[in-house]
Amino acid sequence: MTLGNETAQPSPVWPCRFQGQVVLVTGAAGGLGSAASDRLRAEGATVVNTDALGTGSGEAPGASLRLDVTQRQEWDAVLAGVLTQYGRIDGALFAHGVQGPETAVQDMPFAGWSRTFAINLDGCFHGLAALLPVMRAAGYGRIAVLASIAAREGNANMAAYSASKAAVVALVKTAAKEAAPDGVTVNSVAPSMFRTRLLEDLSPERNTELLARVPMGRAGEPAEFASLAAWLLSPEASYTTGQVLDLSGGRNTA
Question: Where are the bilayer-spanning segments (predicted)?
Answer without folding.
Answer: none
